[in-house]
Amino acid sequence: MKGGGGGKEPPVEGEVSGKRPKRKCLQWHPLLAKKAPDFSEEEEEEDEEELEKEPVLCVESGAQEGESGGMEDESEEYSSEQRARRPMNAFLLFCKRHRSLVRQEHPRLDNRGATKILADWWAVLDPKEKQKYTDMAKEYKDAFMKANPGYKWCPATNKPVKSPSHSVSNARKKVWSLPSNPSKESSAAKKHPKTDSTPQLNFAMADPNKMGGLSMLLLAGEHALTAREISSSSSQTGCADVVKHTGKSALFQLAEISSSPVQPAGGSKNAEDTSSLTHVEASGPSQPSSPDLPKSCVKSPLFQLAEQISSSRPQSASEGRQCGQSALFQLAEMCLASEAEKMEARSSQPSGGSSSLCAQHSLSSRVTEEHEDTAELPITTTSSASSSSSSTSGSTSSSPTDTTPSYLSPCKTLKKKKKKKENKDSYENPASPKKPKKRHSPESDLDSVMFTIEAVAKGAWGSEETPRKKAHPSESESSPIMDQSPAVKKKTKPKPKKQLKLKDDDAEEEEEGDEETYKPQDVEMKTEEAPLTPKDECENEPDMKVEPPVGVEDTTPHCSPLHPTELEEKDTDSKPPQTRQEDREQEVKPETCGSRKSERSCKGALYKTLVSEGMLTSLRANVDRGKRGSLRGSVSDHEGGWNDESWGFSQAATSNPKKLKKSKSKEETTPGLGKLEEEFEKKFNSLPQYSPLTFDKKSVAITKKKKNSTSSPPEPPKPCKGSSSSQKKTLFHKIVNKYKHRKEKSSATDKDVVPTDPTVGAETSPVLKSGSPCMSPSPEPQKVLDTPVGSQKRKARKSKITHLVRTADGRVSPAQEDKSKDQTKNQDEKPFSQETLCNRGVCYNDPISVESDVTDASGGLPAFFSLAALAEVAAMENVHRAQRAVSIPTEGQVKDMAPVLISCADQ
DNA sequence: AAGAATGAAAT
DNA sequence: ATTTCATTCTT
Predict the structure, then answer these.
(1) How far is residue A348's CA from residue A704's CA, in Å, rounded to a whole number?
(2) Which residue, A754, A755, A782, is CA-closest to A766?
(3) Closest nucleotide to A741: CA versus each C1'
(4) Vertex A833, ends A828 and A838: CA angle to 5°?
(5) Mean pLDDT for each consecutive 10-residue tract of chain A (907 residues)?
(6) Strand C: positions under 7 A of a protein C-beta atom
(7) Nearest-CA residue to the C1' of C10?
(8) What does the domain layout of chain A look like in residue ranges?
């Protein structure tokens, strides 16, 4: 049948069933590049407008591939083929958001069942609410389209490519990365990749967006601190602009270089490159073995930085990169600090102590460590890392290796598998689920933010470093300082698997686990109200992203190692995973802790240099991104805007520092990926999550109104939890199967309507839960309108439904089951719903959310923190830090910075 | 790998 | 009108 689909598929992919191998799970893709030019709210609308500008971004590589972009390109090369996944529609978004809930309620239910339920919910959902999703979907789509102008939902028929199948399994590519070129489908050579791969191009994209992001962050901070945004915004912008080109590109290049394994040569090659880089930084230009031009460009700035730093720090010698990092960090910090300071006194010399810079210190200390640890370290970082993370890295490396592009990357598959595994585990061990995951409440976000920043900065350009650490974890000197390394290790061991998407999954899984555990009791009890659901998860959800994978608890994101003493404290605090407060404290602590060092001397110079080069900008951008990612969960405006920036890297960073590292090993390739996802997530999270309760209400209401509503469609039978669950379950399956069957048949041949069991009736109450525990939905038979119910795929509809409808009087045996199920479900749900709703939903702030269903809908955002709020908090934190940190010499630094900044601003 | 669901897009 | 495919994840 699919003939129409274009012949492309059938022949091509014959392997599967004629269809193309669907890649399922990837993340949707990031692209969306929109930019948020200013932090102001333009985002909402301007998407489109800006778009025009953006296009560049899309094109970026210019080559048609689209992907060439920088970092990602490696994978991307092939990507052209892969083409981005289409954006999710409203329903899918809804599903994604609520599936976990459903699952919680019915752990036993399989996905399909869940989907059905979701469909029901969806059907019931108020238009307003629906609209939210719809809007988001649209937004999403728009962004996506912008990103890839020529994108077609259906792959061009042309794609004769061939074989996607074999080459590698197609893993996910990171489509997200860049917009595929519009033409890609048309003919374009899919593969140019390599040529472009050279870093040179760099991202056109970087500019505008990044700036925006950065500026946003900074601005936000400023606002919070002082009210003055003025100069800052303008100044920043201006600076950014100037720098833009160079800066970003440079940064990116670095990142790419470091991260990108692209080199065909394989590990060795990578090593070389890296080394070259290192050299450059550290020793200077003299060493540059690498012929690559682009790099050289980058180098210079870096190099300078390195030098300066090194000068400041006596020791420096071999490891340039460290220096580089530190420098970057410093810069980042400086930027932040500077901005803060600016407000106060930008005049000439603010002696203000606001310096803060804990990060800096930490970094520096860290650097030192590294220094000692590995002067030479295997630069291979990438390669080494890859080796460690066998699968992922392997894939990555391999791909780049060949000249011939293996079209697909195995990623997807792997991912899925991984996920699955984990899920399984979780399932098996219910206990595990809870674990540490501390759900961070908003506060934690801050923490994460700081953390993120560091991570990001590091990750961004220092991919080298990270991996390296991993590779040689402790080894030589295990200075107490390293918090990360240990953490990393732990994590790695426990769950090396999921790196990318963990968050959601984890959360869900966990939830599930919890639920399951509880459930049994409930079932047995059958108490109507079932108090159970303790669910602390509430917080969880919102933060999920931030939260590291359950893994080990160590997740604590410490900012950085500090002095030993402090360190100790920190550790202590951090260790206990349980409390949130602790987490917070942690956050604070790190800040507090700064070890002081005098590095300020160079800063000014560095700063300048960076600025000139543009590094700063990029740096800042990175920082912002990181911050933003973690911070901004809210996305107050529904449309907020997807910034490509966001799409960039954050994901890993945000979620955990560890991840970052890990990710590198795993997929360094996709540095950017995270951001997009993150952005998406934020938005996604901002979407209201409705509790079952809500649906109940609605459903009821609807039922009354419409009466039929979903009635006919078989309610998704829910497996109940009770002891009998098994039976029910079985039944459930049967039913399901029937439906399925039905559907299939129908599609295949209308003829059979599945007369099958009349008994099946079971329509049960329309929609899910009616409120009363016992009640049976039966009351309203209303029959069906023709409206297509949602459930059974489209085909099924009326005719089928008909038979489904419960018999006049009642239910047939099967029906009974269903009912019972429903009842149970209802019970559970209700209780849950309320609590759940409160908690999870949205809630941080208000309880309102519960009712808010409706309200929410209208209102728009639930209570997520608004970006501004977050920013504020962040700002505050900074201030505090500064205050606390007073002892730190940073002041000087600050001073230095100020002038620089100013100058920058002027420019 | 199939499949449940909905929707957007393409055919 | 019909077919693809996006997401999730069990079976």
Answers:
(1) 71
(2) A782
(3) B3
(4) 145
(5) 32 32 37 32 33 34 34 38 78 91 86 90 86 86 82 64 35 35 34 30 30 31 34 35 33 33 34 32 34 34 38 39 41 44 40 34 35 33 34 36 35 35 36 32 37 37 33 34 34 33 34 34 34 34 35 33 33 34 33 33 38 34 32 36 41 31 31 57 76 62 41 35 33 36 34 32 32 29 36 44 32 34 36 32 30 34 37 41 35 38 36
(6) 2-11
(7) A110
(8) 90-144
Per-residue CA distances from A89 to A92, A132, A224, A787, A790 (Å): 5, 12, 36, 21, 15
Which single residue is written with the structure tokens 């809870």? A434
- Using CA atoms of A261, A651, A24, A861 in order, give the dihedral in degrees to the nearest 10: -160
pLDDT tens digit string along A612-635? 333 333 333 333 333 333 333 333
Question: A320-344 and A890-906 helices cross at what angle (nearest 10)?
Answer: 70
A443-497 per-position pLDDT tens digit: 333 333 334 334 333 333 333 333 333 333 333 333 333 333 333 333 333 333 3
How distant is C1' of B9 from CA of A102, in Å?
A: 29
| Residue closest to B1 C1′ by Cα | A16
Taking the CA of residue A715 and the C1' sugar atom of nucleotide C1, their distance in angstroms comes to: 28
Cβ-count burial A447-469 (b if 16+ within 10 Å, e if not) = bbbbbbbbbbbbbbbbbbbbbbb
Of A813, A865, A507, A509, nearest to A682 by C-alpha is A865
Task: Compute the distance between CA of residue A69 and CA of residue A279 in angstroms, rounded to an integer.
Answer: 25
Q: Are the CB atoms for A843 and A538 separated by under 8 Å?
A: yes
Identify nearest nucleotide to residue A6 by CA to C1′ distance: B11
Q: How far is the CA of A167 from the C1' of C3 (A)?
A: 27
Centroid of chain to Cα A144? 16
Find the residue closest to B6 using CA and C1' atoms.
A91
- Sign of the dihedral through C-alpha A196, A198, A201, A204: positive
Distance A113 CA to C10 C1' (A): 10
Cα A515 from chain centroid (whole Å):
25
At A768-782, the pLDDT tens digits run 333 222 232 322 323
Q: Which residue bears the tokens 């020529």?
A: A150
CA angle A766, A772, A774 (to 5 degrees): 90
Q: What is the CATH number of domain A90-144?
A: 1.10.30.10
Q: How many degrees, rounded to 5, is the angle at CA A228 between CA A224 and CA A231? A: 125
The nt closest to A733 (CA vs C1′) is C11
Number of other residues whose CB lies within 10 A of the CB of residue A808? 7
* A247 CA from B3 C1′ (Å): 49
Give the CA A97 to C1' B5 distance in Å: 14
In three-state form (DSSP H/G/I as H, E/B as E, the rest C), the secondary structure along A790-848 is CCCCCCCHHHHHHHHCCCCCCCCHHHHHHHHHHHHHHHHHHHHHHHHHHHHHHCCCCCC
Q: Scanning the structure block, which residue is given the tokens 């991840």? A: A659
User: How long is the CA A94 to C1' C10 vector, in angstroms?
Assistant: 19
Q: Please, which positions of strand B sit below 7 A from a protein CB?
A: 1-11
In the numeric block, the tokens 């953390």 are attached to: A451
- In the beta sheet, which residues pair with residue A643? A34
Would you tell me which residues have their CB within 7 A of strand B? A 4-6, 15-17, 19, 21, 24, 86, 89-92, 95, 111-112, 115-116, 118-119, 122-123, 134, 137, 141, 152-154, 156-157, 713, 736, 739-740, 743-744, 789-794, 796
Distance A665 CA to C11 C1' (A): 33
